[in-house]
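not sure who needs this but someone in the group chat was asking about Sodium/hydrogen exchanger from Nostoc punctiforme so here u go. i didnt clean anything up, its just raw.
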Amino acid sequence: MEASFEITLQMAIAVFAGISAQVLAAYFRIPSIVLLLLLGILFGSDGIGLLHPHLLGTGVEVIVALATAIILFEGGLNLDLRELGRVSVSLQLLVTLGTLITLLGGSMAAHWLGEFPWNIAFLYASIIVVTGPTVVGPLLKQINVDRQVATLLEGEGILIDPVGAILAFVVLDTILNGDADPINAIVGLLIRLGVGAAIGGAGGYLMSLIFKRASFLSFELKNLVVLAILWSLFTLSQMIRSESGVMTTVVAGAVFANSSVPEERLLRSFKGQLTILSVSVLFILLAADLSIASVFALGWGSLFTVLVLMFIVRPINILLCTWNSDLNWRQKLFLSWVAPRGIVAASVASFFAISLTQRGINGGDSIKALVFLTIIMTVVCQGLTAGWVAKWLQITSKDVTGVVIVGCNPLSLLIARFFQERGENVVMIDTDPECLVQAEAQNLRVIASSGLDAAVLEEAGLASMGTFLAMTSNGEVNFVLAQRAAEEFKPPRVLAVFPRDPQASISVSNKVNQAFISDLAIKTWNEYLNDGRVKLGTTTLNELEFSTQCDRIQEKIRTGVLIPLLVEREERLQVMPVNQDWEIGDRIIYLLHDPRPSLLKRLSGATQSTPLSLEKLAEVEDLSLAQLSQLSTSEAPGG
């Protein structure tokens, strides 16, 4: 009875400490793994001594195996094949060539700097080829890096985990059995990957069929059925070929996620919660079992080993794997910096330490200490600074430039002109050949097709664009276009011209912003542009007159004679959303209705073909006599 209570107490402490770390990490907006490591060490034998994972016996290995299956399956669920296709070559190289570079570079550093024997050095390097999706995912959500970089980092973290884990077990098997033939090692790696992929593919398809056709099951029960099948697939794969289960879980998740399963978001939510719990408990238990003395006993050579891994091996890896990609130097530098190791490396290292010790081979505790030193240094250094580095390199999502505009008309061409003059990439999409001819005349890239086709948006390069704007003459279509673009391509800024409430779902959508003003009569303003009955104005909001300027512009918006088009802030030009909060220093670019008759305008020298010039307009800039008298009265002494 006492033994069972001790185990219960250990698990309760681990769960409490793990969830506490997650809560604190969310509050302070730092990577959760940092606090999980700190609390795990604090609660362990080298801290206050509340946690003793060895009391769980072989139960720790069971927890590690089943929890890792959940973590990697959830990672597979997040694999979007469409997104991965855009960086497929670089991703394939990172998982293959990148693994080899890290294996060789890490083993040489561990041998020459850490003074480990070659077999142990290779084992260490095989463990740390993986990056941690459970660390990278939350980190990318916090810093909102641009989509192309985020997709590459997420894809690498998820796909390299099973490859790295199986590679590590192949290297361990080679060391334990004394078989140094590289051909056998490669064959063993490929067999495990093949067995895992085959079982995972079949299992993922089976899960999707259950979700689609088992209508008699509640969603809660379907989620549990998927969990039961997942663990069964993992166990079956392990029985057929040891250590192939990790590949099974990732492939099963990817197949399921890309099978167009209804209500998949419910499963994602359930598995996401299980993943948080699994990561929390695993890291607490593994960190609590870590001997701080063994880390310090490694010496300076091991510290230099990790530094070489971070500052030499990783940059070489990224340089070679992204050589022919369209990534710029800022994106490549960020990828070179962010490669934190996570739960898979920690769990594999802990298991290897036990295996080596049981077989009487020295180096098990040292490998575990060095792997945890790598985790600590990469997570703390890279995790805590990634946001600052992304801002410094200007690759956060708000820094992404370029615009895709669906709907080619006088108003959209005017907006496109401003972005084009800034040197930003602009793509126009429409089905009207006559309108597209006008766009081509302005040297704009045009695609004669429907924006409802995802392939067209992909051809336009929306995945790497900063803004999507739907402004056809049909507001309902604009909203649907914007929703689809937001869900499939996730550009930082998604805007559309649509009625105030074209459908009930608009009120719950937070991905699409209404452009310009509420209920914009786009046909009317296009007629104004065609007839030359508009002026193009600009005003900069200053501290002295800020409230007066805002009131003046808002009054003209309410009377329907002005629409704000663009706002320039911190030298960045953006399409004006309805809910934009203006700040001092903002430069507002707007259209003002000029109701003078067309004949009078032609007599005054303005023609339909004359390009609008940007100017300060007296109708907006100048104060009325009443306002001037009020201002002078308020500024009078004693007033």
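also Residues 452 and 484 are 8 Å apart (CA to CA). if thats useful
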